[in-house]
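Notebook p. 47: complex prediction with 1-deoxynojirimycin.
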Amino acid sequence: MIKQKQMYIITLFVLTLMWILPAFPIINAGVEQDPEIIEKIDSLLTIMSLEEKLGQMTLVSSSFTPTGPVLRDDFKQLVREGKAGGIFNAFGAEYTRQLQQIAVEETRLGIPLLFGLDVIHGYRTIFPIPLAEAATWDPDLIEKASETAAAEAAASGVHWTFAPMVDVTRDPRWGRIAESAGEDPFMNSVFARARVRGFQGDDLNKLNTILATAKHYAAYGAAEGGRDYNTVDISERVLREVYLPPFKAAWDEGVRTFMTAFNEYDGVPATGNRFLLNSILRDEWGFTGFVVTDYTSIPEMVTHGAAVDTAAAAAMALHANVDMDMQAVVYLEKLPGLLKEGRISEKQIDNTVRRILYTKFELGLFDDPYRYSDTGREEETILNQDFLGTALEVAKKAIVLLKNEDQLLPLSDDIEKIAVLGPLADDNFHPLGSWRAAGRREDTVTLIQGLNNYISDKTEIVHIRGVDFRDTSKEGFKEAVELARDSDIAIVAVGEEADMSGEAASRATLILPGVQEEFLKEIYETGTPVVMILMAGRPLQITWANDNIPAIVNAWFLGTQTGNAIAEVLFGHYNPGGKLPVTYPAEVGQVPVYYYHKNTGRPKDPDYRFTSKYIDAPTSPLYPFGYGLSYTTFSYDDLKLDKNVLTPDDTLHISVSVTNAGKFEGDEVVQLYTRTLAASVTRPVKELRDFKRITLAPGETTTVDFFLHPSQLRFYDSGMNYGLESGTIKVLVGTNSIDVLVAEFELELK
Ligand code: NOJ
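Predicted complex, structure tokens below:
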């Protein structure tokens, strides 16, 4: 009894101390930690029981919108007992307030909960999927989109997003390509930074910012066969040069949390991988934030065959400095026993609790645990007009024009009748893509709704779906064919269902699902000009369509503003300028096919058999990385380097003149690549170094400048030393990764 009273007094004392300590300046924790927060945490640690500490290390899903198997439905009870410090998959100001109340009012120490959610491409205002966002090649705009998502989520009680996903992937069979910025390490790094800035802002204490997560650490995108959760087996050089840079970039931008990946790396599951988590993340990079596992990935280390039981798995994770256990509740259950046996130490536990509590302080939760759960602010913030405006801008900029024979597009206002067909013609759900957070189908502008918003009085729209996504029935074909035959233009919207990409959505084929291609063929055979709208979360193998359909618009999954964005493009209110952040294969058997490949000793020569190619399929992709058309054309001239010899302390100034040679104002993404011709280890045939999206009026010419610093040319040599070597470097500048102007210089080390 006395003990309890004493404890109560100590708690009161510590909490009072915390309230009265002066307001702390928020410093970028990516660099420095605030000593006052540390002091408060140390005081708190002195009164926390082991179980309370383990509670802070436990994150459980609410039953609201689970994103994996629900293993326990007692999450509220865990909170009540102080055994869970974070809840994910709970959102809404009202609901999060109720849950927060349990933690604050019913537990001994009243430590506030942290609410996490997968806010991947918008919260309620849904933006294009991340792959599509990357197709804008406009990181500033994507920063703004992430800012919007953070503002909405933060007003609905969410403190923490499990984004950005920064996994480079070269395999479109892997469904999670939809969540990434595509195949290139530089692109993924640029967008990782933009998203972290957007979510976290410059002050996590502000009410419109949330914690971000760099995930899935590491190399998850290299899953063998493109099969989700599968084994990864890559060299350390590839790990460091291709898969790690976006994570490092996210940390350089101050990302507060990392999520471990499901896969193994070099035989050790990422969640217990000390090389990845201790040697690289903590020791080399100095990461000071906290690491959360992916969903139940601690016990999965037993299934991997890396730990004999869950206790051993928990020890492995803790020794790798994994701070928070998502959904498995094994830290809570197994660490006390391990502690008793001396297999782990209380110091290790304190260190992880310190890192977790630090973020709760940064968010201001100890000042007011309910500050993010404000129904009034939620109502004002959600779906506001500015946010919808940003979503429209991103959606338009993400659209990639893949083909436009004889300038079929843009459509004239005088067209009398348009048939709009296909499973995505009037669908309000699938364009939201996977990971929809609080997105609602009723908010989506469908393609037909969008067209109706932009058509002139002279145009009539007729519609029938005609075909389903996967159902192979052809019952609707006849009526669709009749409508098409009787119309001036047929717009056919085909593609994947939203959840055919994203997590656990790997595909072994990349064709249009079901009988959609046959449908497309029948509509094409009517002779009515066809515009194909492709919506999917990955590159699809649309070789037949590319050979036959005159106009193809890649509209990914564009989110809430889908219909308006596509309509603006189709009617020429907006000239598309997006470019592919990923290579489109001509045949699934080419995969992995990506621009950043090595030359080999026998590069493809169509006239010589014994070279690197296929005998039954093309070797070149259908559309290369960086590709995308416009209603206008751009010409490139006068590629200039300001020097022929570059030394390590100098910077190379590269300039190129770009002219809008057509009749429409338009955007062009000017891309800079380099190639190191010979080195002690072979280098890729091209590496993206920089890019700029510019807008030019018809006839306008501009000079685009790039500055290349030798440090950008560093690589790992055979001894895994990161540095430079003298030699000839090619500079390639152009409209995509194939069509480039070329110059060269010598890199000379003193
Ligand atoms: C599993 C996914 O791999 C991860 O990306 C996500 O953040 C968690 N589930 C939580 O939903």
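Notes: Residues 1-9, 15-31 have pLDDT under 50 and may be disordered. Residues 76 and 99 are 7 Å apart (CA to CA).
Next step: compare against the earlier run before touching the bench.
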